[in-house]
What we know:
Blueprint: H1 2-33, E1 38-46, E2 49-57, H2 60-78, H3 86-91, E3 99-100, H4 103-118, H5 128-133, H6 148-155, E4 163-165, E5 170-173, H7 182-197, E6 204-209, E7 212-217, E8 222-228, E9 231-241, E10 247-253, E11 258-261, E12 264-267, E13 270-271, E14 276-277, E15 282-289, H8 292-305, H9 307-317, E16 321-325, E17 329-333, E18 340-342, E19 347-351
Helix pairs in contact: 2-7, 7-8, 8-9
Amino acid sequence: xxxxxxxxxxxxxxxxxxxxxxxxxxxxxxxxxxxxxxxxxxxxxxxxxxxxxxxxxxxxxxxxxxxxxxxxxxxxxxxxxxxxxxxxxxxxxxxxxxxxxxxxxxxxxxxxxxxxxxxxxxxxxxxxxxxxxxxxxxxxxxxxxxxxxxxxxxxxxxxxxxxxxxxxxxxxxxxxxxxxxxxxxxxxxxxxxxxxxxxxxxxxxxxxxxxxxxxxxxxxxxxxxxxxxxxxxxxxxxxxxxxxxxxxxxxxxxxxxxxxxxxxxxxxxxxxxxxxxxxxxxxxxxxxxxxxxxxxxxxxxxxxxxxxxxxxxxxxxxxxxxxxxxxxxxxxxxxxxxxxxxxxxxxxxxxx
Length: 352
């Protein structure tokens, strides 16, 4: 009897040991089947800005390679200064000689015009002549203030209504009009790159286009910093982006790109109604959005409007934003409550 039980125990122990071995082998097999994730990064110059990309996933290298090609293709069609680009061709068009655009450029122009209308003309993609007059163009002199005649002449060329979109992807501009998509391009490119990269097996993407950040993490929230407009070596706030979907944090202000003439700073964001740099009580405006194209435009619009008009406009149009004033007050739209965390020297006030 004793021996019989011993054999039973031995048999049972053997079966358990075999089960453990089988389970262990199964788990090891799963581990070996799991694709290895790598992180790949790159920084390139495109459309007059630095583009930094960081991608994590089993296809990170392939995704990065595809994104680099996508940037080059976008520059080929959207750059104003690249000879032969679609925007360059558009700027040399006329009613009698319209150009045929790609679906991508045509659609972006449609969206840009819609956003210009939404802003009441505060944003205008034909503001290039005014930028040139104030020394912020590619071939302009930043050492002096333009005279009144030069300002008026430049302002008369600014009007997005003079961009004409025709059927069959054709378009033309009226004489003297210069289309420059610089105010919308970074947001649009970020959206396009994010879409391209996420077509691969990736788990995390962080894109930085000259301070415009677009990010995605499938497993956890990401924390994005908002630069302090009073000290660019510090943060004014951090923003929590939700996991599982892309989000953009886009800031406009005059604290980095400006000319100082006779002790006076002149920022690069222009008032299309006066032909002069905007006068605003804001130091910066940051928009948090899943739509980088709209966010890019709206950050500029809110900054130009000033605090009171900006808060009214943002509330009416459902724009998630952070508005920074000189006195250290940070106006934050109510929908971002709990997602924005102010840093030292700043105090949050909610609106909306």
